[in-house]
């Protein structure tokens, strides 16, 4: 199950004898296509049922409100593609926002705080990757320890919410790119889109990206083929840690605060987005584009529930659970057919 | 001495002893147990009482992990069982009637059994990875619990219900007795019958067990049902202790603590051999850690940091690769001398 093709290229079907050549979707694309169909259906239902849902800004707001989740989910996609998991991302967001807010409050310049904040998750990710690779500790347990560590550290630094009043931070938070009257995106969206595009390119067209798919397909075979399994695996967790930190920085722009309870349960949202986006949880198959669609589905559920007005927030959880179930069964059917 | 050091429960017991001993430094009367109003009273009793839910959840988790699975939904199941019990008790005409409360408890546990069957069905019949299959219920379950309680915290006033989590029987906490009974039941089932062997064989290789004539599918479904039932009882203990159902707080992060307890107890996440005594010890260690943090005077939240450090140390201590790398030269030299002596 080593996949080296890029998302947009449809598979060339072998011509069948005596049969017409019909377009048949590559089985690997089916989950992503299903997510796309779901997204379109959800959007149409929204436009049909609610006034003002068709506004361009409604769609853009989904991006504005979920930019940090998008960045985190991209990192998670890399980890899950190798067959691992990263439970620490939510806690890393909390730690990043807390450290950034504390240092800014102490009067440190933003130019120093920003790289430091980004370094936190990266170093933690590197550490977890090393523990997972060198000491053969399960990713689940190693990142669980990372989660406890990051959450504990941020609680140790400050248990209360710290407001951020730094000029640079406020500027970044208020920066808007306007296209038309009342149609805009925030700086967070621009950063998130850059991360998504870069990550998709790296995954599709570099040796590193192919190594990730190879390890996810079968780590032992990858090792026997002479691929740098250890280096790739450590790099993937480092990247996920970096994404989580960047997500934390975006979150601190978004909320203008640092708080040790930020991002609770965010790892679940990220994993759910990745699964709904059609990435196989055993690793080896899936696309960054799918994850983007997954995040959009989650965001759109929120929007629909807000527009509906009389539904309570717990319906979000139930709907996400049902969608998770549907997509996992779909994945199961697709992989079974492929075999 | 080396046999003692090699025993799989040596490290968990050592950690527990160190934790308890460190309490002695900070509070002098930590080990005193007094009898007040016919109840045993003291920090040690407190540890036993407060570990009950985690011990129950960890028991179920041990069985699931021994088959090579994992159950992330236990926290949500706890929330659901507490929510349903409190809702039904609120509707009772006489909340102090023991029979009605027992019926309510039965209904709550029955609902948990259904959820356990669902998890087992997803894993064993549809063949979905356990971590993902139970993730569904973990996400949706809290929503269901909030749906049951309508997003409110339900308070109940029922004397018989209160007994489950906060009552005493013959001066011993009832919750501890429930947990002890569950441990005894599990040990009897797994170590006095062939069940334990079957579990370990399914964990070792489901395909090989099936070929050897073991109904691997049925056993897999069964462990998830067990896990959900134990989680349901834990949820009842929790909600009875606080006399309310809080869908967000009940069983929050308990799945991670339970997995931690199992791993601390020396059961590998890959399935196969399992140790019930180890998991119980692990659960008690985690509860002791929380209580120790309070008695030492550090903020409760920083226990997370404690936990992280303990997990890291224990994981590294249990990782064969780490041991080989750090103690490698030492161990091989020793083995060589032993071989020489034997020759």
Automatic annotation (TrEMBL), chain A:
Q: Which domain of life is it from?
A: Bacteria
Q: Looking at the keywords, is Iron-sulfur present?
A: no
CDD domains in the cross-refs:
TM_PBP1_transp_AraH_like (cd06579)
Q: Which UniProt keywords apply?
A: Cell membrane, Membrane, Transmembrane, Transmembrane helix
**Annotated InterPro entries:** ABC_transp_permease
Q: Which residues cross the membrane?
A: 30-50, 62-81, 87-104, 116-135, 141-162, 183-205, 234-254, 260-281, 314-334
Q: Where in the cell is it found?
A: Cell membrane
Instruction: Indicate how the chain sits in the lipid bilayer.
Output: Multi-pass membrane protein
Which named protein is this?
Sugar ABC transporter permease YjfF
Tell me what organism the protein belongs to: Paractinoplanes lichenicola
Question: What does UniProt list as this organism's lineage?
Answer: Bacteria, Bacillati, Actinomycetota, Actinomycetes, Micromonosporales
From TrEMBL, chain B:
Under Pfam families, the record lists: BPD_transp_2
User: Does the keyword Transmembrane feature in the UniProt annotation?
Assistant: yes
Where primarily located?
membrane
Bilayer topology reads: Multi-pass membrane protein
**The keyword Transmembrane belongs to this UniProt entry's keyword annotation:** yes
Would you say which domain of life the source belongs to? Answer: Bacteria
Q: Which residues belong to the signal peptide in this entry?
A: none
Could you tell me where this protein is found in the cell? Cell membrane
What keywords appear on the UniProt entry? Cell membrane, Membrane, Transmembrane, Transmembrane helix
Residue ranges spanning the membrane: these are: 9-27, 47-65, 102-124, 131-148, 168-189, 219-238, 250-269, 276-298, 304-324
> This chain belongs to which protein, by name?
ABC transporter permease
Species the sequence originates in: Paractinoplanes lichenicola
Question: Lineage of the source organism?
Answer: Bacteria, Bacillati, Actinomycetota, Actinomycetes, Micromonosporales
């Amino acid at each position: 199950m080593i996949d080296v093709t890029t998302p947009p290229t449809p598979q060339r079907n072998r011509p069948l004898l005596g049969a017409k050549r019909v377009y048949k979707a590559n089985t690997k694309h089916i989950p992503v296509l299903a997510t796309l169909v779901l997204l379109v259906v959800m959007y149409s239902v929204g436009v049909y049922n609610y006034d003002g849902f068709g506004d361009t800004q409604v769609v853009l707001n989904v991006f504005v409100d979920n930019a940090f989740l998008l960045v985190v989910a991209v990192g998670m996609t890399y980890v899950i593609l190798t067959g691992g998991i990263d439970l620490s991302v939510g806690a890393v967001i909390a730690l990043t926002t807390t450290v950034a807010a504390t240092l800014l409050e102490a009067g440190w310049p933003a130019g120093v705080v920003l790289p430091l904040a980004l370094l936190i998750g990266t170093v933690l990710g590197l550490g977890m990757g090393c523990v997972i690779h060198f000491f053969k500790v399960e990713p689940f347990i190693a990142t669980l320890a990372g989660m406890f560590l990051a959450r504990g550290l941020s609680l140790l630094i400050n248990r209360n919410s710290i407001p951020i009043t730094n000029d640079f931070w406020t500027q970044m938070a208020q920066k808007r790119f306007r296209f038309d009257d009342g149609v805009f995106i925030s700086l967070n969206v621009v950063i998130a889109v850059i991360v998504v595009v870069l990550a998709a390119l790296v995954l599709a067209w570099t040796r590193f990206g192919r190594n990730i798919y190879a390890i996810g397909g079968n780590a032992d075979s990858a090792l026997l083929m002479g691929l740098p399994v250890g280096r790739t695996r450590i790099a993937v967790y480092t990247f996920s840690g970096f994404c989580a930190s960047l997500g934390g920085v975006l979150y601190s722009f978004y909320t203008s605060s640092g708080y040790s309870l930020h991002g609770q349960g965010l790892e679940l949202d990220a994993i759910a987005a990745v699964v709904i986006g059609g990435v196989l949880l055993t690793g080896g198959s899936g696309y960054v584009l799918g994850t983007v669609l997954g995040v959009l589905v989650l965001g759109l559920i929120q929007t629909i529930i807000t527009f509906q007005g009389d539904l309570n927030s717990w319906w979000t959880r139930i709907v996400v659970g049902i969608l998770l179930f549907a997509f996992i069964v779909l994945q199961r059917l697709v992989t079974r057919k492929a075999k | 001495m080396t046999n003692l050091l090699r025993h799989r429960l040596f490290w968990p017991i050592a950690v527990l002893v160190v934790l308890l001993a460190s309490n002695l430094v900070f509070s002098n009367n930590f080990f005193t147990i007094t009898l007040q109003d016919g109840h045993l009273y003291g920090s040690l009793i407190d540890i036993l009482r407060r570990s009950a839910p985690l011990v129950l959840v960890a028991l179920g988790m041990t069985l699931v992990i021994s088959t090579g699975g994992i159950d992330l939904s236990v926290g949500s199941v706890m929330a659901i069982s507490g929510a349903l019990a409190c809702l039904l008790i609120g509707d009772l005409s006489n909340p102090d009637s023991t029979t009605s409360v027992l019926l309510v408890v039965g209904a709550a546990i029955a609902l948990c059994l259904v959820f356990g069957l669902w998890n087992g069905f997803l894993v064993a019949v549809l063949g979905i990875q356990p971590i993902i299959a139970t993730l569904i219920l973990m996400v949706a379950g809290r929503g269901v619990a909030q749906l049951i309680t309508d997003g409110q915290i339900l308070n109940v006033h029922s004397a018989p219900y209160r007994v489950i989590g906060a009552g005493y029987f013959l001066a011993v906490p009832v919750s501890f007795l429930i947990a002890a009974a569950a441990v005894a039941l599990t040990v009897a089932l797994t170590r006095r019958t062939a069940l334990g062997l079957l579990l370990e064989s399914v964990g070792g290789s489901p395909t090989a067990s099936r070929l050897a004539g073991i109904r691997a599918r049925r056993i897999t479904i069964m462990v998830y049902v067990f896990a959900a039932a134990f989680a349901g009882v834990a949820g009842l203990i929790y909600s009875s202790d606080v006399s309310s159902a809080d869908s967000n707080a009940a069983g929050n992060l308990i799945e991670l603590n339970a997995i931690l307890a199992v791993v601390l107890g020396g059961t590998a996440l890959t399935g196969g051999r399992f140790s019930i005594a180890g998991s119980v010890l692990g659960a008690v260690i985690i509860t002791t850690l929380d209580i120790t943090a309070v008695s030492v005077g550090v903020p409760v939240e920083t226990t997370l940091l404690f936990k992280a450090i303990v997990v890291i140390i224990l994981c590294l201590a249990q990782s064969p690769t780490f041991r080989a790398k750090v103690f490698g030269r030492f161990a091989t030299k020793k083995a060589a001398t032993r071989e020489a002596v034997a020759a």
